[in-house]
Give the backbone structure.
Amino acid sequence: AQSVSQHNHHVILSEAASLELGCNYSYGGTVNLFWYVQYPGQHLQLLLKYFSGDPLVKGIKGFEAEFIKSKFSFNLRKPSVQWSDTAEYFCAVNTNRDDKIIFGKGTRLHILP
Amino acid sequence: DAGVTQSPTHLIKTRGQQVTLRCSPISGHKSVSWYQQVLGQGPQFIFQYYEKEERGRGNFPDRFSARQFPNYSSELNVNALLLGDSALYLCASSGNPYEQYFGPGTRLTVT
């Protein structure tokens, strides 16, 4: 069965620090990969996605993620975080065999001003 | 354009009761999916409907059912509610089956 593992449950950083959130998935076939963000009081929003092609994908608000197939990983990065990045981040995977999206448990990111 | 809308926003029910949650997809989207998000967890897939047909079902008991209407809106029904059904229920619509847009959710509390 497919699964998604997010390494960090809670991350606290100061503004301007660099961010990397880990994500690993388990599935041997072709995958589509996503990062969703949930800001306080708001609904889930798509941050970025990978379907095929360049494994380095850029999303909104300066976020990027790199797909490393050999490591089954899709880590999220941002060179310099802002207080407004405080949110919960979910890594998710979908396969071409199935329409459902499998989510990780989420990482709660808290940025100190 | 309006995003995915869900109603009601909040709901409080008693154990054993039945509940119906509603979702309207983004205009032009023909696929609707339902997810359950328990506090501290990521969303878990319940159902997906496309053109009124069930396309996928997650690992949920038969107390959970859903349907999609000709206008692509959808309802999620849960019978014989249990305390453990308390959660945020999310609806997502998609034009592309692999890219889903989420609504604000319905917060269900079972007492």
Q: What stands out?
A: The first strand of chain A starts at residue 3 and ends at 6.
